[in-house]
Every structure is written in C-alpha cells, then in structure tokens.
C-alpha cells in the first residue's frame, strides 16, 4: 500500500476489528456477569466477600496481560503480526467457552474458583498479545498522516464488544425466565463466543502480512531479540516508560471508570436493577462510540497529546460531581414513598429459610424491592435491594454515563496511533504492547476491585458520601499521568519513529 492509498484498508480494518471486538466481548462477559458469577463459583455464605473475590479474579486477568504482551509481542516482531494475533484469538475464545462449562462451587467445591482463575489468566495472556497486533497491523497499512483516523476504528471495537456482550446478556434474560437464567442461562453468553471466534478465525486466516513488516523481513531488518532491543536499549526504554506513565496509565483508569466502574457502581452501590443498568449503559456506549473516530481523526490534525491530556483533565475534575449526581438520581431516601402501596410478603424456601419481600412505590414511578433472607441453618440474615428506576432517571443516568464515555473516547481514540509512532517497525509490537497493557491491565484492570474496596471500607466507617471514595484511585492516577504527559510528551511526535 502506498503512503496515500486507502485501497483495501477497509478489509484490513474489518478483519482486525472483528477479531478484536470478539476478544473484548469475551473479556467483558466476565465483568458484566460478575454479580451472578460471584454466587456460582464462590462460597455463598458471604456475598460481599464472594463479589470481591470475583472482582479480584477478574483483575487477575488484567495483571497477566503485560506478560502476554511480552510473549506475543516478541512472536509478533519475529514471525509476523498475522499469525500471532490469530493464536491469541483462539486462546481467548477457548478460555471463554470453557468458563461457561465449569460446574458450580456447590458441585466441585474449591476446584470451581481455581479453574475460573486459570482460564482468566489464559484470557489475560491472550488479550495481552491481541491489541498490539491489531493496532500495529492497521497502522502499518494506513496512509501517511492518517494513522489516527484509521486506527481509531480499532479503538471502537472494545466498546462495541462490551455493547454486544450486554445485548447478548439482555437477550438471554428476555428469552429465559429469571430462575432459568440464574440456574444455567448465564452460561449462554460464554458459549456464544465460540461461534463468533470461529467466524473471525476464518476471516483472519485469509489476511496478508502487514506491508511494513513484510518489507522489513524481506530486507532482513527484523529483530532477532525484540525484548532486549525494546527494554535493554536505554533510548527505547525511555519511550516505553513515557508511553506508560505519560499516557496509558491515565488512559487505563479513565477507560475502566467510564465503563466498568460505572456499571458496577450502578448495580452494587446504587442497587439499580441489573437489566436496566445493562440497557442504559448500552445506549450510552452506542451514543459515545462514534467519538472514537472523531478524536482519532482530530489527532491527525492537531496532534495526539492535547486531546488525550484534555480527556484526563476533564475526568479528574468532573468524576466526583458526576457520580454524586448519579447516586442522588436514584437515592430512594430523597423520594416520596406512596405508603398505602407498600406491601410485604413472606416465603419459606425448600431449605427452611424465610424470605421477607418488601415492595415500595414512589411518586415518581420508582419501585424498590427489598429481600431479607433469614437462614435457618446459620441463624443469619441477608438483605438485598433492587431499585427499578423511572424513565426520566434512566435518561439522566444515560447522559451521565455518556459524558464519561466521551472522556474515554478522548484518551483512547488517538492512543493506538500515538503508541505505534513512538517505536520502530522491528520492535514495534513488543515495545507498544507492554506500556499499553501495564497501563490498562495493571492500573486500569485493578480499578474495579480497588475502588469497590474503598467504597465498602468508607461505608462501614459511616461516611455519608462513602460512594465517592472509590473515585480517588482513578483521580490520583490520572493526575500523575496528566502532569508527566504535559511535561514530557511532544505533541508533534518529533522524537518518534513515524
């Protein structure tokens, strides 16, 4: 492909994007179903501990992503982009399918969480090699001066993957009864992924190698030791560290706050009914996704730096007001209860547990359902609350999540082109993959577990605004990244390998 031609690039983007979208779908399914999974693969006697264990298992998949970046990045710089990210696709899809096949904790005991953890680690390794391959592959096909625009199409796939995962979960819940979904239906989204992976494999199988890498291989200029050249060379290591601490670290926490933490916050802190959260999050993502393209295109015109730094700065100052507005929108203590419509029912389960269900209606159309379970065997109680919000509150939350998605598109839209341009062809896959996956895998992937812990600790200590404490983690990390990025990143990429 010439420096100006765009012939065939849509085929390249489609092949890369579909595979990447499926890999993100696989990864997101686990996060989206974390609340359900916590009751299946972990002991049920302590729901909070089970949920935190699930988030920790989810985070484990992110922690190993840098190792996947090193392993598959090295392969990608030695044998090529195409075959490497075909392997990551199959590893990812196979692990996801098998998670849907693992028996519950009640059936096989501690083997259940152990097997889930092993498969999550394999997922993380695969994803560690996937993104660098797809981004590098598309960037090396893109015409000169248009890398931001063309690689931004890859950036949309992660959000599209989350969106599709939410839609598959919603469709499954719609078709099945609540009881069937809880018993076995939650496994269906995991099983569906194997079909999608098969289709993507057939598409990727027919792709050609990237022209820049093919040229380097023909000329004998590929690296025999990408790891040593990437991290043993002081000059290149400087760019690796700058990419991490000046860009991807902040991008990672903004990404996971705007999507995963927002979803977890609404389900576990605000107690909004799960299907409603999936629906409104899906709408916000659908509205926000085109802005990946907008900011990727804009970065070709004005540079990557100020767009990415602007997204971080907005997030730093607006996260607390946004989450306060989200919480108060559905806070039933601020609503007027229709007392005469309040009703309580009692049910005795097969295990002689007593369940007291109290349903309250409010003047704005909100419905609150509280279930208090008194366990006969343990002489203990468990209280769960589900809030079904009215349409006005739904649209308010959609808008507040959409604003967070805009921050995501600003930091994430230009970053593939930014990373690709920092490193030479022969070590590009390895060099860009590591800072990306440390920033996203370590700093971003740990966010749900760390932030949920902060909220739980603040709530137990009796703080009135306990729900805002989880935001300190992304705010501090993004602030550090903003300062480093503003000082050391060159907006015009004068020091990069274009």
Automatic annotation (TrEMBL):
The chain crosses the membrane at residues 21-42, 48-72, 84-105, 111-129, 150-171, 183-203, 239-259, 279-299, 306-323, 395-420, 432-451, 471-489. Pfam families: Sugar_tr. InterPro entries: MFS_dom (IPR020846), MFS_sugar_transport-like (IPR005828), MFS_trans_sf (IPR036259), Sugar_transporter_CS (IPR005829). Its main location: membrane. PROSITE patterns: MFS, SUGAR_TRANSPORT_2. The keyword Transport applies. The keyword RNA-binding does not apply. It is a multi-pass membrane protein. SUPFAM superfamilies: MFS general substrate transporter. It is found in: Cell membrane. Signal peptide: none annotated. Residues 12-493 form the Major facilitator superfamily (MFS) profile domain. It comes from the Bacteria. Keywords: Cell membrane, Membrane, Transmembrane, Transmembrane helix, Transport. This is Major facilitator superfamily (MFS) profile domain-containing protein. It comes from Flavobacterium limi.
